[in-house]
């Protein structure tokens, strides 16, 4: 399937999930992250869900990260790129013009410092290719990261067989966690 078709399909599927189930599924996903070999690092980048989009609720994963004394990094949209701030007790979160919750400001963290990125997505395939909202924020961000950064997708759904319009610059996932399964993708 083409990315545009997958965006439509999975947006509709996600909207059909009862709101109360999103929390339960998100907790399952957060607990499954504990089985990944990613916990010996220091800096973890995580997204905050957009209200009303029925995205995975990341507060469970955030609690795990904080409980393990990890440095948590949050993105902020600036123009067509993401900038990144360390989450501290003083971090103030506010929705931007697209209703994306993000830090107002804080301690700037360079992408090269980040070890693990938890990524939002709409769909992905069995090779680890991913489909987001189509604006390219994470593609540009991942190009700024170290080549060994660990990319973990979080999804409410299982993998598609193939995304037909994968681009040369698309950076695949290393893992994707769903409520039912953890996918591991070999490096290409």
Q: What does this protein look like?
A:
With 188 residues, this protein is an alpha/beta fold. It has one domain (3-184): Rossmann fold (3-Layer(aba) Sandwich). It has helices spanning 3-15, 19-32, 59-67, 137-144, and strands at residues 43-45, 71-78, 81-86, 93-95, 101-103, 116-120, 123-124, 130-131, 150-154, 175-177, 182-184. It has a seven-stranded mixed sheet. A two-stranded antiparallel ribbon has the order 4-5. A hairpin with a 4-residue loop joins strand 10 (175-177) and strand 11 (182-184). 34% of the residues are buried. This is 5-formyltetrahydrofolate cyclo-ligase. InterPro entries: FTHF_cligase, FTHF_cligase-like_sf, NagB/RpiA_transferase-like.
Describe, in short, the structure shown:
It holds the Pfam family 5-FTHF_cyc-lig. This protein is an alpha/beta fold.
């Amino acid at each position: 399937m083409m990315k545009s078709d997958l965006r439509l399909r999975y947006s509709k599927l996600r909207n059909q999930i009862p709101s109360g189930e999103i929390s339960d599924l998100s907790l399952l996903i957060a607990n499954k992250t504990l089985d990944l070999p990613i916990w010996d690092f220091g800096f973890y980048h995580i997204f905050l869900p957009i209200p009303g989009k029925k995205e995975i609720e990341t507060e469970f994963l955030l609690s795990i990260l904080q409980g393990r004394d990890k440095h948590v990094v949050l993105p902020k949209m600036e123009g067509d790129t993401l900038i990144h701030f360390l989450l501290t007790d003083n971090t103030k979160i506010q929705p931007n013009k697209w209703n994306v919750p993000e830090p107002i400001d804080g301690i700037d963290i360079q992408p090269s410092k980040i070890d693990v990125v938890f990524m939002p997505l709409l769909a992905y395939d069995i090779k680890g290719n991913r489909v987001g909202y189509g604006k390219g924020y994470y593609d540009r961000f991942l190009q700024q990261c170290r080549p060994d950064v660990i990319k973990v997708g979080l999804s409410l759904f299982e993998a598609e067989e193939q995304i037909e319009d994968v681009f040369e610059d698309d950076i695949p996932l290393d893992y994707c966690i769903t409520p039912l399964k953890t996918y591991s993708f070999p490096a290409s």
